[in-house]
Write a structure and sequence with these properties.
This is ABC transporter ATP-binding protein. The protein has 313 residues and is of the alpha/beta class. The protein has eleven helices and 14 strands. Bound molecules: adenosine-5'-triphosphate. Adenosine-5'-triphosphate binds next to strand 2 and helix 1.
Amino acid sequence: MSAPIVEVRNLVKRYGDVVALDHFDLRIEPGEIFGLLGPNGSGKTTAINCILQLLTFDKGDICLFGEPMTPTRYDLKRKIGVVPQNVALFEELTVRENIDFFCALYVDDRRERARLVDEAIAFVGLEDYVKFRPRKLSGGLLRRLNIACGIAHRPRLAFFDEPTVAVDPQSRNAILEGIRRMNAQGCTVVYTSHYMEEVEEICSRIMIMDRGRSVAVGTNVELKALVGAGERIIVEVAALGDAVRGRLASLPHVRRVTYTEPELVVQCEQGGHNVGDVLGVLADAGCAVGRVYAEPPTLNDVFLEITGKELRD
Ligand SMILES: Nc1ncnc2c1ncn2[C@@H]1O[C@H](COP(=O)(O)OP(=O)(O)OP(=O)(O)O)[C@@H](O)[C@H]1O
């Protein structure tokens, strides 16, 4: 088995009294799109900055590409791309010049660099904007430029820290598609977000973080199986009495029943014929039922189950 591309053991980072990372462990294999999912302040950015040695930390070991990472391991840093949360660009340089500047930190050869910069521009779809300065770009285009600057040198490992915050849907899709393509071309990706839908959509494995710790790690399917969360059944029904609600709550596989007229929500565990059972109880009670639909479990259900809190407060 090949060495993990990222291995973090027992990482502790404090800011004064705040414990931002609390004995944090992480292992990412080559070829993954690995998601770090957690609410604001759970420690995602701190974890990335420690891994990259941009921050000092109190304790812990970090290996990248199977080798110990230190602030002066420029040979390892060359193989890494970073797309930070805050857009960091030079206002006086054009789109093309910005990308060239960042690429030049790693690639000396001008001709090689010109080719890589062209590829990066095409990769994020900024061909029509190469002569623009950043202030002329929309938020979504700025994010795309930020990405091009981070990945033009063709890293083998790339960190994307919340790259889709405040972008339009078109740029969001372009960003996610670009990440998938990079990954298909052999780049391992670490992707942080507090948007569970995005993480579910593109990540091969996901770590759920809370208060500087990993609370669960696995594929999307594994995480949902871990807590046994099943679908949520939503039924429009008028004037539902307590007795019927009690019968619904005592059905096998039913965890929680809530009713705010006219919406009945039945949270189930995995398995069983839940929709049929719920509708059976309502039919027996003579309830007139309107719209019925079921939503599959989400990573928010997993987070709620483990931490007792919503992922998005
Ligand atoms: N420079 C700093 N000084 C003091 N405390 C900090 C600093 N940076 C982060 N923290 C604290 O460390 C904890 C982790 O923050 P971090 O930014 O890593 O979380 P995050 O999951 O990346 O959140 P976000 O999505 O908001 O960036 C939080 O409690 C935060 O307030």
